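Recap quiz, item 2
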Amino acid sequence: MSAPALKLCKQRERAGLKGPRAPEWLAAQGIVLPAAPNTWAHSDTLLVARLGQLEFFLEGTVAGAALKRISSSLEQRPPGVYPVPREDWGFLLGGDRVHDVLAQVCNVNFAALPLHSHPVIMTLMIGVAVLVVPQGLEPGQGAAGERQYRIWCDPTYGAYLGESLGAVVVECGGRYTGVS
Amino acid sequence: MMYRLESPAGEWIDRSAPLRFTFEGREYQGYSGDTISSALAAAGVPFMARSFKYHRPRGILSFADHDSNTLFQVDGMPNVRGDVTWLRDGMRVTAINTFGGLRHDQARVLDRFAPLLPVGFYYKAFHSKRLFPRWERMFRALTGLGRVTLDAAREATPKRYGFCDVLVIGGGPSGLAAALAAAQAGAQVALADESPRLTGNGAPPTLLRAVQESPRITLFPATVAAGYYADHWVALAEAGRMTKMRARAVVFATGVIEQPAVFRNNDLPGVMLASGAARLLARHGVAAGRRPVIVAANLEAYQACLELHARGITPAAIVDLRAAPENDAAVSACRALGVNLLQSSAPFEAIRGADGRVAGLTVAPLEPSGQLDARSPRHLECDAILMSVGWAAAAQLLLQAGGTTRFSEELQQFVPSVLPAGIFAAGRLNGVYDTESRTADGRRAGSQAAAHAGFGAPNGEAVARSLRCPSHRFPIIDHPRAKNFVDFDEDLQVKDLENAAQEGFDSSELLKRYSTVGMGPSQGKHSNMNALRILARYRGVGVEALGLTTARPMYHPVPMKLLAGRSFYPERRTPIDAQHAALGAVWMPAGNWRRPEYYQVSGESRSQSIEAEVHAVRNAVGLIDVGTLGKIEVHGPDAGQFLDRAYAGRYSDLKVGMTRYGLMLDESGVIIDDGVIARMEENLFYFTTTTGGSATVFRELQRWNALWGLDCALVNVTGHRAAFNFAGPSSREILQSLTDVDLRDEAFPYLAVREGSVAGSAARLLRVGFVGELGYEIHVAAGRGAEVWQALYAAGLRKGLRPFGVEAQRVLRLEKGHLIVGQDTDGLTDPYEANAQWAVAMKKPFFIGQRSLRILQARGPRQKLMGIELAAGAPLPKECHLVIENGAIAGRVTSVTHSRALNKSIGLAMLSPDLAQVGRDIRIRGEDGEMLAAKVAPAPFYDPKNLRQKAGSGT
């Protein structure tokens, strides 16, 4: 069992879009869309989160081409599709006592969320609006049933969220990494 | 006198682990496992506290955290509850609410002045305006419990959320049975009990063990359910943490609270509740006395007698208020032991001994009518009086949850009547008293709760309520010399409540507020029921007719630290935060942002640095981080129409590539925000809001967008874009070296907006004039902010650039007469008062606030925002200092500063219309009442024709 760990994930790029024609446009770009609102899916190298009906959040690796292609196409201003700049800070929270940590910062019962439905949670965490994606671990990465949580927030709250969440993680015997 | 017995089986203390502590400066010894009051009792301390009003000596009453007789100051912490706080080695304990120490408390003389302090004297004292200040000073000095010490060590008490399917409150037989039944049905259960250890309170040991071993039950011992909030959200308070528990169903097995009998001197140390005495004996081996008298009105009294006898203590007598006790083995056993049983008898007066504790009890026959026959009193020698006359339902949490109760005449207690969905009650709270029945009732409630939460099916029949009445209907004995206390917290006697009712405060709510019964730290746990009985007798009605007062959280007092938790303080930082720090920024809060107030330069004072920053902007170039401004995009074919409706100005006719000032009003026409609105493309607008207003404005605009259903979408990019204002005569020249945008006036006129790149990053540039110089607001992606700032800074440094902060910006904008929403406007300021009517396009078909503006326009302004100049050499007034005319308030200063550029002190002020004329002399009342001369002046003060910001030239 591993101690809780919080990691600031800098090496990722993000983009967003919304609008009445956003779903069809995104699908036309070859992206696999989550079918239901407030769920996520993997498409190629991207994580695609559907925020409500008509807004999407995408994250990919810096080296990945898919996100660059999407962002570039958005600059052409397709009708009914509006770019949403996403300079979020992204965190990865995991480890053995991850739910002890989450219980101190957020009133969502994350442990009870069924992973198979790929839920996307938009909530407040210690006063900050966050986007949360719970995920299971790849085989061999941790104990059976262990989870990790991808957490994103507005960049202007990033330092506060990281420091505050990191303090709780450290108190629970873990570490906060990725910050300079 | 209380004393420690030889080791009884099952005690909680460890006699091999002594602990030393001090009380009132004197050293004592207790044991590990003692509480503060059990250790003091074992040490034979005669009394432990002084009462709130009369400073009467007090001792242990409930030994259950249900009374405030044993509150202490412990190591700097006030109001520590001695009954339930574990003793620690080295503890320093003192009594609270004393003047000169516990034993020689100077305020004890107040007991003799009791006749001068009748019920309601507090309100009556304040009736005299002349004497008001004297009474206020006296009450402030005399009242209050405990002392707050500012140097007490801060303890970390993080809060957490908890989740369960079924929450069970109460760990007695019914609570344990409910928890187990719910767990067996498949529910995740949380069980909270306020006892320091979970003992089951008489439940079968097998039941307790099953609960402790169940993997689906999480136990919260030593935890108070402090309050019930909406949707089954319950605050669970432990010593060092609060858990905010969200359940899907709640079982209240909160039991009952033993009630005192009311007789003269029933508050003496040594008079306590029988259940409290039993706990003190069983857990800590401390006996209430060697020769106690039991005042009885139920079977529990006789069981208490047998428990004492088993420990070698034979009560002097059982004084039973009833004509005949139950036909029960316990009663027979007491008779067989030779205990003196006095039926139809009542305690008349407890006698005080030389040490301040009880030394005897006078009893008298009680007639069937309830009248006492005081002609033939009988004196009993004793050193303790144990009261076992009845119970009151601990229903406060149930009532908070929306449950209702009714008064059961058969049981003489309130029992649940109608319960909301998901709420269940069991055990003695429910009027079920014997152990087997309580267990069955708990099983029923637990299975019903689990079924409500989606687990299993409800099973178990409703359990019949007790046929035996465990509570006397009127355990209150009148005495001509009073001192028969109903509320120990507030020192309220029977006559106080009767007098209150006589004065017209004759409902339960009015009686509470006038007499303060139930308003002390105990919150009426030992007084509300008897108070109702007294009121019912006075009014000649049944208790049911009166009803209970409203129960509100907290059920027990909760330390503020548990509510505070970690004290998270969300703070926003711009992408340039590190650069500001490196430049010596002195921080200030701006809403929930941190911003540089100014930049500390070695050898400069604060005012010198701010002046230098202002000077740099006026004469060279300055750079300020305005990334805190709200930044919103609106996209779509109806974007222009949307802004026309949301703002007071017109934007649908704004040319692409231009900006316009935006004034936002609420529906009453009051100014709530402002900013700059830029048209980037035909169907794309980009606009700013104030720093403090961004979240609120975006939320409001989203709401309006949903209501209006226009074909447009809003995107909040506030945190995702960095923004700077690069301003000063040299700004164009320096910026041109970093951008591909043509900055010449003919290509980029004042109030235009352009897109291009700055220092290699895609940027939006807006020509704005907030500080009154040639300047550009530069907006880039947040991730590029630091790089662009560094490039601007480096390029500008060679030309005398200084970064400038909020304070310098305030001076610069004030020199231009520009208002700040929320500083120069308040919650009632409309555009006419703020001289901003030029920003209103009244001819639009509709905008928010339009209808109200028509009314306000017809009415005329009540005040006007005007520029002011202070007389030369006059000290500077402060913001909100008043303008006085003919002895009356005629306005207030909203902004003020000394301007080096203008060499005079200037400001803005809201003035009554008759004063709002340029050239008019006014007087401002400054610090210490000094009157300062000023004159109404035209604004802008600096560059009135705005030549510098438009073309970068002229003054």
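The CA atoms of residues 45 and 60 of chain A lie 6 Å apart.
The mean pLDDT of chain A is 91.
End of item.
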